[in-house]
């Protein structure tokens, strides 16, 4: 359940959405995507020129088709749009290269690690060249080192493409590393209790996570969650706070 959400996200920005389980983060993302409709109010998604935006959604599970190769999985959205299989496969090579998986394009999903499957899922989302990319805890099930490497790769993809990104996560360090702006939600009914511009350099290496300025930014997010009783006591979140 959401309450009193009044939010504007600038085109080309990277926004992280934080909050406890069940507060409505994923619901808000589904409203933006059009997968669900709010019972009241409205959501408007438009490009800078006023034209409809192209959206892509990356879920927590990679959701790859096991009988299709990596290349064919990435090409699928184009085929569904009516692009010929040959052209779709050719256009799928570029996003696979962007996620550094050109060498596995003929493998099947069960031949890949969890991190590689998620990179395929991201490539599939990018193949249609979306102006808005929505990600719902895509790296939550991965080990910490793999997750950090994928955070770094996603950040670089955003710097290159400059699409609008809304990224749902429970992890404070992940939100601070990836985003330019962090939105913290309260427990149900979900409200925005903090809208914070992250004061960090545009170019970010993995070493940034140990920097004093980075720790200070994550502390701001932590205090907002704590002040509104929104801390999730799951081991995953507590481990993130100690990192």
What does this structure look like?
The protein is an alpha/beta fold and 243 residues long. The chain folds into 2 domains: 1-54 and 131-243, P-loop containing nucleotide triphosphate hydrolases (Rossmann fold, 3-Layer(aba) Sandwich), CATH 3.40.50.300; 61-129. The chain has 8 helices and 6 strands. The model is unreliable at 233-243 (pLDDT under 50).
Characteristics:
6-stranded mixed beta sheet, alpha/beta, 2 domains, 243 residues, disordered C terminus
Could you provide a short overview of the structure?
With 243 residues, the chain is an alpha/beta fold.
Helices and strands in order, then pairings?
Blueprint: E1 14-18, H1 25-33, E2 55-58, H2 70-80, H3 85-98, H4 114-126, E3 132-136, H5 144-161, E4 164-168, H6 172-178, E5 181-185, E6 192-197, H7 212-227, H8 235-242
CATH homology superfamily of the largest domain: P-loop containing nucleotide triphosphate hydrolases
Q: How would a textbook summarize the main sheet? A: 6 strands, mixed
How are the strands ordered across the major sheet?
Answer: 2-3-4-1-5-6
Distance between the termini: 31 Å
Quickly give the structural class: alpha/beta
Low-pLDDT stretches are 233-243
């Amino acid at each position: 359940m959401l309450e009193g959400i009044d939010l504007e996200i600038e085109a080309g920005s990277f926004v992280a959405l934080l909050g406890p389980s069940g507060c409505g983060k994923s619901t808000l993302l589904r409203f933006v995507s059009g997968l669900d409709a709010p019972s009241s109010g409205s959501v408007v998604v438009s490009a800078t020129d006023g034209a409809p935006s192209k959206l892509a959604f990356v879920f927590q599970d990679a959701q790859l088709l096991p009988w299709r190769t990596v290349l064919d999985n990435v090409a699928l959205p184009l085929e569904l749009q009516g692009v010929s299989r040959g052209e779709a496969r050719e256009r799928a090579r570029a996003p696979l290269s962007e996620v550094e998986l050109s060498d596995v394009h003929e493998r099947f999903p069960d031949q890949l690690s969890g991190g590689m499957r998620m990179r395929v899922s991201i490539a599939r989302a990018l193949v249609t060249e979306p102006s808005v990319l929505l990600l719902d805890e895509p790296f939550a099930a991965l080990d910490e080192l793999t997750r950090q490497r994928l955070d770094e790769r996603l950040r670089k993809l955003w710097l290159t493409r400059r699409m609008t990104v809304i990224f749902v996560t429970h992890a404070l360090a992940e939100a601070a590393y990836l985003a330019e702006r962090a939105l913290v939600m309260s427990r149900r009914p979900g409200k925005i209790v903090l809208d914070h511009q992250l004061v960090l350099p545009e170019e970010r290496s993995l070493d940034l996570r140990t920097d004093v300025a980075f720790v200070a930014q994550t502390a701001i997010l932590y205090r907002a969650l704590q002040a509104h009783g929104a801390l999730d006591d799951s081991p995953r979140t507590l481990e993130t706070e100690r990192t």
